[in-house]
Amino acid sequence: MQLIDQRFLPHQFVIEDVATVRQMADAIREMHVRGAGLIGASAGYGMYLATIEAAARPTMTEFDRHLADAAEQLEATRPTAVNLVWAIERQLANIVNGRTAREKIALALRTAKDTAAEDEEHCRLIGEHGFHLIEQIARSKNRKSVNILTHCNAGWLAFVDYGSALAPIYTAHDRGLSVHVWVDETRPRSQGSKLTAWELAQHGVPHTIIADSAGGYLMQHGEVDLVIVGSDRTTRTGDVANKIGTYLKALAARDNNVPFYVALPSASFDWSIHDGSEIPIEQRSVDEVKCARGWCDGQILEVKLAPENSPAANYGFDVTPRRLVTGLITERGICEANEKSILQLFPEHAS
Ligand code: MRU
């Protein structure tokens, strides 16, 4: 199967072939593919590859062992986005129903396709629901351009299509509303300036890249009407884990009365967790903080930014407490960030 290797965007559009579980695990860990929805979809296909590999094993017991090893290998790649575990568990629950290796492979392929198709449809619906929010603001501004701030990349690159945070923006733009997006650069990996800006440019959506620390200033000066971010894991009570720096945006939004919305498909809810402090936060290599990758003379180069011997830390995500979240935009509609309101949309997860 083929992936867009996002490490090369926006400078090169590189397609990567992935044929084994190990290659898929590497692609997720090293962030050739990233973003909650795409991590889930990729893990789903990773489990399909696992069934093909397992079919070469001599017995069904060994088939099952290979599958369990593959699940473990894929799960260990990235700890925060809950879509990963969700997609793997969904695969295991379905594959077990096959009696032969052939049946198991077919079930795994079906499940991988269903997971990807659902992700796409859920993001489309998030676009519909979030559109109404933007439309309301546009009306209150006499149709003047709506300024939306976003953090990291929660666009179609982070999902199978449409995106979560960017889906309402694309829908609004496509339906003729004037929107402008403030794109947080999102250090250390710069998913904002590299990926979100590229996506928006491809789609013709007006946008401006800003340093991560600029959002507060813009909010103080009335330049932000709305913040929409994505989520890698949201508790059943509405605490939101998202790319590091999201919490600071939520604080600034609250201080300046700017609505702060989180867009997420239901696969990004962790129904087993009540409090954001229980969400595992990924820590990545400090080289991502101490160095920067960019394009120079026709090639990708990495340059050092910091003193060689200074220690660094690289926390990938933070948790925004529900009290700072104005609302959650899901495929079933918009709700408040609290358990009661979330369960009104997803009653099957009550109890
Ligand atoms: O580390 P990443 O790039 O996989 O992080 C994911 C993100 O892009 C964000 O946290 C995003 O806002 C939510 S996932 C669509």
Structural notes for this entry:
The protein is α/β, with parallel strands linked by helices. Helix content is 42%, strand content 17%. It is built from eleven helices and 15 strands. The protein has helices at 21-29, 36-54, 60-75, 82-95, 101-140, 167-174, 191-203, 215-220, 246-255, 287-290, 339-345; strands at residues 2-4, 15-17, 146-150, 179-184, 207-210, 226-229, 233-235, 240-243, 260-263, 269-270, 291-296, 299-304, 317-320, 327-330, 333-335. The protein has a seven-stranded mixed sheet, with helices on both faces. Strand 11 and strand 12 form a beta hairpin. Helix 1 packs antiparallel against helix 2, helix 2 packs antiparallel against helix 3 (60-75) and helix 4 (82-95) packs antiparallel against helix 5 (101-140). It is globular and about 65 Å long. The structure holds 5-S-methyl-1-O-phosphono-5-thio-D-ribulose (MRU). 5-S-methyl-1-O-phosphono-5-thio-D-ribulose binds at residues 34-36, 152-154, 158, 164, 191, 229-232, 242-243, 316. Residues 34-36, 152-154, 158, 164, 191, 229-232, 242-243, 316 line the site of 5-S-methyl-1-O-phosphono-5-thio-D-ribulose (MRU).
Low-pLDDT parts are none
* SSE run: EEHHHHHEHEHEHEEEHEEHEEEEEH
The average pLDDT value, as a whole number, equals: 98
Global shape: globular
* C-alpha Rg (nearest Å): 20 Å
Distinct bound molecules: 5-S-methyl-1-O-phosphono-5-thio-D-ribulose
Largest sheet: 7 strands, mixed
Instruction: Estimate the strand proportion.
Output: 15-25%
Number of helices: 11
Structural class, please? alpha/beta
State the helicity in percent bands. 40-55%
Terminal CA distance reads 39 Å
Number of strands: 15
Strand order of the largest sheet: 5-4-3-6-9-14-15
